[in-house]
Amino acid sequence: MSEATVIDGKAFAAKVREGVAGEVAALKAARGVVPGLAVVLVGDDPASQVYVRGKGKATLEAGMESFTFRMAGTSSHDEVLARVEALNADPRVNGVLVQLPLPGQIDERAIVDAVDPAKDVDGFHVVNTGRLATGLDATVPCTPLGCQLLLRDRLGADGLKGAEAVVVGRSNIVGKPMAQLLLRDHCTVTVAHSRTKDLPAVVRRADIVVAAAGRPEMVRGDWIKPGATVIDVGINRIERGDGKTRLVGDVRFDEAVKVAGAVTPVPGGVGPMTIACLLANTVAAARRQHGAPEPD
Q1: Active-site residues: which are they?
Q2: Side-by-side strand order, sheet with 95-98
Q3: I want to staple 165 with a disulfide (CB 3.0 to 4.6 A). Which of 18, 186, 208, 255 is the partner?
Q4: Angle between helical axes of 270-289 and 142-160 (0-180°, round to 10)
Q5: What is the Cα–Cα distance from 281 to 46, expressed in whole angstroms?
Q6: Which of the 8 DSSP states describes residue 100?
Q7: Domain that holds residue 63
Q8: ∠104-140-257 over CA atoms, to 5°?
Q9: Residues pairing with 164 in the sheet
């Protein structure tokens, strides 16, 4: 059997971002509106700082306004809440994103739910998660949305209909919304996790595997049905053995590529799609807030 197709998330994300830039230009020409994305960063977590810089750069490249608010790691819950409420009221800001995780003294769930649902471009607010779960229009979390776009591009609508999909991971950020999106695309969906009995056998049934458990290289090649499409959401840094580290996913790539029909790499797979979908969510929020029609 030949090796799997390696899905190029970076190239696909570039197309999405190009489309977003076109929508931004059209909205500015038609309505005089420039979408604005505000990011709140609390503390000095190195990974969060890298993510926030990347989001700011991508926002500007798409022709949007970028607002970054850096707050001390000692900031109180009320101080962060006040910042979010100010951004909710700011007409220049169409999307509000609070970078997670937050320091321990802050009630993370309360801060997420303080964001105006109309500006919740992360799709984490209980209103958006509830609308998604009940089949209503909603802002979808960026990572699951990116996975859905990759699957649709790879398999097409007919390839998704009736397919057996297994999501490994049950987080509110990826696993649960991913399952809802797959159901919307008419897949038969199983949500599995680290405590699932005989997890390899469950995964082996799947035509589509979305690995989002946060465990390095947990899904092995012999777990995968020959020809399956594998979407690896994991981003884990592990020791290389020479004192340095490397990034790996939740799937053992060198094994999976010999069995699967298609697989996303780490890095270069789902990661670039997350930021591209954040930009798409922001311009969509701006359109709704200004009564502009949704693009095709």
Answers
A1: 55, 99, 122
A2: 65-71, 36-42, 95-98
A3: 208
A4: 100
A5: 25
A6: S
A7: 32-117
A8: 90
A9: 188
**Domain contains 127:** no
Q: Which amino acid is at 38?
A: A
Q: At 73, list the tokens.
A: 């790691």
- Here the CATH number for the domain that contains residue 90 is 3.40.50.10860
Distance, in Å, from the CA atom of 167 to the CA atom of 156, rounded to the nearest integer, reads 19
Q: How do residues 16-71 score in pLDDT, each as one tens digit? A: 999 999 999 999 999 999 999 999 999 998 888 988 999 999 999 999 999 999 99
Strands (E), the chain: 5-6, 36-42, 65-71, 95-98, 164-168, 188-192, 208-211, 229-232, 236-239, 245-248, 262-263
**Pair type for strands 188-192 and 164-168:** parallel
DSSP class of 251: B
| CB-count exposure of residue 148 (10 Å: 0-12, 13-18, 19+) | buried
Dist. CA 132–CA 134, nearest whole Å: 5
* 86 phi and psi angles, rounded to 5 deg: -65, -40
In a domain, 134, yes or no: no
What is the Cα–Cα distance from 68 to 71, expressed in whole angstroms?
10
In SS3 terms, 260-281 reads as CCEECCCCCCHHHHHHHHHHHH
Cβ-contact 123, 139 below 8 angstroms: yes
Q: Evaluate whether residue 86 is within a structural domain.
A: yes
> The pTM is what?
0.94
Helix (H, G, I), strand (E, B) or coil at 141: coil
CA dist 57 to 50, 52, 54, Å? 11, 9, 5
What is the count of structural domains for the chain?
A: 2
| Alpha carbons within 13 A on the beta-carbon side of 264 | 34
Give CA 113 to chain center in angstroms: 18
Reduced to 3 states, what is the DSSP secondary structure of residue 233?
A: coil
pLDDT digits 0-9 by tens, 98-137 = 999 999 999 999 999 999 999 999 999 999 999 999 999 9
